[in-house]
Amino acid sequence: SDGDYWRLLNPGEYRVTVRAEGFSVSSKVCAVGYDIGASRCDFVLGRSNLSRIKEIMQKFNKQPISMRQRARQRRLPDT
């Protein structure tokens, strides 16, 4: 979905952070010049997988999954 936001700012550089539910946070430096008119600072947000991470964490009682432990569990016993 598209979203617009505007703010009157004095000329300079500003670090802008954008957040939207269901999307990853994004930050960048935006420059506001002395020219007449608006200075654009566009962002493209990617979908977040936070809900999937929460689902997995809940399944494992909110314990981080150790990749080493997982690999050991998958190995076949030596015979």
From TrEMBL:
Query: InterPro entries, alphabetically?
Result: CarboxyPept-like_regulatory, Peptidase_M14_domain
User: What SUPFAM superfamilies does the record tag this protein with?
Assistant: Carboxypeptidase regulatory domain-like
Q: Can you name this protein?
A: Uncharacterized protein
CDD domains, per this entry?
Answer: Peptidase_M14NE-CP-C_like
